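Repro:
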Amino acid sequence: MDTAVTDPVVGLLLEGRYRLEERLARGGMSTVYAATDLRLHKTVAVKVMAEHLAHDPTFVDRFTREARAAAMLSHANVVGVSDQGSDQGLVFLVMELVRGRTLRDLLSARGRLTVAEAFAVLEPVLSGLTAAHRAGIVHRDIKPENVLIGVDGVVKVADFGLARAVVGTGQTSQTGGVLIGTVAYLSPEQLERGRADARSDIYAAGIVLYEMLTGHPPFGGDTPLAVAYQHVHHDVPAPSAEVPGLPWQVDDLVARTTRRDPAGRPIDAGAFLAELSDVRRDLGIDPVPVPTGQSAGPGTLRPTNRPTRPRPHDRHPSNPGTAVLNGRNPGRGGRTSMLPGMGAGPTTDVQGRRPAPARPRPGVPDHIRKRRARFAIAVVALLAVTAGAIGWWFGEGRWTTTPELAGKDQAAAIDLLQNAGLDPDCCDEVWSEDVPAGTVLSTEPAAGAEVIRSTDVRLVVSKGKERYTVSPDLVSLPVEQVETQLEDLPVQITRGQDYDNQIPPGHVIRFDPAAGTELKRDQVVTVVVSQGRAPVAVPDVTGQAPDQATKILQDLGFTVERIEDGRSDAVDKGEVMAIAPGPADGRIPFGSTVKIQVSAGVPVVAVPDVVGKTGDEAAQILQAAGLQVEATRFFGNKVLRQTPAAGEQVERGTSVTILLTFG
C-alpha cells in the first residue's frame, strides 16, 4: 500500500528544507522517514516524534539530547546527526540514512552467529562506544535494535535518545523516578539504583555478545520484573552451556563483561575492545566480513508529493423551514367560556309562566335529613371495609411467597425481600467455584415457599472462589519458619530440593506453584529448599601453566591444592599434568578441593650397565631403557666404557655414549 495514502506526513516539507519521501520504520515514540535535503541535494533520515508526545517536555528533551549527544561524536561507527528542529507541530531530528538492517533483524533471520561473525559485529560497536565514552557520553540503551548493519557491511550504533553526559561522579542518574532502557540489557546498578556509567554500556554489550552467540538473551521471564530480578541476583550463564564447543576464552570474556559488580568489568568500551582483540589473537580467529544477510539493498527512493486530500463537498444551506402553528390558543385548551348574559334564564313552563316556589315539608328539615343519611352510609361502608380487610388478613392476606433470589446481588435481594413484606436475615457466606462473590446462592425458606409476612428469610451468599496465597516474603527464609507460617493455610505442604547459588542451604528458594498464585483448598504446594550452590563440572586444565589453571578453578569456586610435581612424557615441564578430581568425575560440590600436579619433565630411568657387552647388545639394552645411544668405535666391538655410568638416574631420552674397543 502506498505510504503517501496511509501516512499523511509523507510529502511534508520541514523548515523549507527536508521533504519527507518514504516511511522507513515506526515505533511507539517516533517514526523514521527517508527524506531529501533540498539544500544539499542528498538523501537523509528524519526521525519524527510521535504526535501525542510532541507536547511532553520530557520526550522533547530526549530528542534534543539525542541530537546533541550524537552531534558531539564524529565516528564511522556512530550514526551521525546533522540537524534538529520543529515545524508544523512536528518535532524531528535529521540523521544520516543507513540502508540495511538491524542486528535484531539479522538474529531473527540467522538464529545465532559464529564466534568470528559475532566478533566482526561487536568490534565496530565497541569502537563507536569507545568514541562516545571518551567524549564523556554513556549510551544507556545498547541492544540489537540499536545496532545498524548497512548493506556495505558497515556497523553503526544508533539511538542516543537515552544518552547522558557523565557528571562529576562519573555516573549518570535517572530522572523523574522512571527507569529508562530495555530491561533485557540493563545492568544491575541501573535496575537497583538507576545509575549508569561506561561500565553499564559494557554490561549491555556483553549481553548482546551472549545473544549473538546463543540466539537469545541470557534471562527471560513472563514480566519485566522477573527479568530484572535475574539480572540483579544471577550471574550470566556461560554461552557454551547453550552452544557446546564454544571456546572457554569466549565464556570467560562474557563472564568478565557481565559481572554484576561494575568494578569487575572493563572500565570502558576501549578496554572491552582490547580484551576482545586479545581473545581473537589467542584463538587465532581471522577477521571475517560483517554478516549482512539478505537485504533489500538501498533501492530507489520513490519521490512523492504530499497526498492530495479530497476537498469537502460544497454545502448549500437549506432554506429555513417555516414553523406552522395550529392556531389553537393553548391558553384556552379548546374550551369555550360563557360570557355574561349567556347563562340559562329562569325556567318557565310550556305556557311561559314561572312555577310557584316549592314549600318546605313539615318536621325535620331536608338538609339535616340528607346529612344524617350520608353519615349512616359512611359508617356502614367503613364497617364493611374493616370487616373485609380483617377477613382477608386472616384468610390469605397475611401470607406471601418467598421470591426467587438465587443469582441476585445481595443488596438487590434485600430490597426484593422487603418489598415482599419479609425481613432479610443476612447472611450466611459460603465459598462457591461458580457464583461470584456477593451473589445470593439460596434462601431459607426456599424460593416459592408460602410464608407469613414479616417472616425472617435467611440469605446464603457466595464468598466467591475459595483461594489462598503464599506470601512472596517467605522466599529466602529458613524452611522450618516458613512451614510454621503455612500451617494455618488449608493446603498440603511438601518439600522439594534444588541448588541455588544465592540462597543458603536450608532456606526456601521458591514455591511451586509460585508465591502469590491463588491456591485451592487442599492443593499441594511444594516448598523448594536450597541445597546450596550447584555442583560444578571440573574443567580440563592439563597442559596449562599452574597459575592460569589455579585461577580458572578458583573462579569456579574450587579450592586448589598443588601436590608434589610428577613426570610425564606427554606434558612439558612446568605445565599441569594431572588433576583430581578431573573432568571424567562429572560435577562435584561447589567449594571442593581440586588437586593439581605439575610436570617436572620426562620420567627418570637408571642407566643400565652395558660394559663388556657387544655394541649391538649395548644399543639394544640402552634403547629398551628409553635412552639414546652414541657409539665411539676404537678398533673393536666391545663396550670398554660408558657415559653416564651405570646406575646413574637420567631423564628418559638422554644419550649414553659407549666406547667400543677390542675385547
